Give the backbone structure.
Amino acid sequence: MNAVSHISSTATSNTCLAAALTAVGIPLAEKPFVRVVGDGIRGERTVWFFEPQSPCGKFQTKELIAAWHDEGWHIANPEHPFAYIKCALLNRERLVDKVKQDVPLACIKRRGKIAFIPLDASPATEDLFLRYL
């Protein structure tokens, strides 16, 4: 294996995957990351680089990266520590996406009363809420 193939097989631009790898003890490489602009991407991305295995030898970086991308791996390996971490981080991503899809509420306080009005409320709905304040 040459140096370039080693680096590419133990690197990721997925920060959740990078966090999962460090959680099971996979060390970051000597040069832990690079920030990339251009390359057909909008803005900037970070690429994380890892050592090929955990210091104890129990976890192999390439195998865990493959497990991350395998949608059924955590089901087949439910007691593996990486499965718990993978599920937790994927659940976090889903929860954040759900929050981003929701319409925020404006908190209006008047005369000791509080109303929460959706930011996309119609003017008629806003008037209804504000009349009670």
